[in-house]
Amino acid sequence: MDQVANCDHEEKCCMIKTEVISANALRITVPDKLKADDFRQIAPQIDSLISQYGKIRLLIDASGFNGWENIGAFENHAGFVKNHQQKVERIAVIAAHDWQHWLIGAVRIFVHPEARAYDKNHESEALQWIVG
Predict the structure, then answer these.
(1) 46 vs 23: CA distance, rounded Å
(2) What domains appear along the chain, each with residue ranges and CATH number?
(3) How far apart are CA 15 and CA 31, in angstroms?
């Protein structure tokens, strides 16, 4: 079941998208800019998987991500991570920018799940690690 969050069709890459890639794994494709309500939009699907499997795995394609729309979006993102991180077993992030690799390195210090960053040309390795 795919889910697409709200979108102004005139914006480039404006939708946060989810796709189930295995029983307990979800692929999240992040838009150019995250908005404050993006996580409210995907929470039901993530919470449903957590209810079914206890712990989930996430493959996050952030290769088109360039930041947050505003501080509210960043705060909602941080709150979502804080509230869900104990139920996420692994996170693989497809990163396109050096700052994303640095951020994933910093995140590993503070959050529970095992997190790894992959370049776009290593996406198949990231997928194998998540579903394997």
Answers:
(1) 12
(2) 3-131 (3.30.750.24)
(3) 6
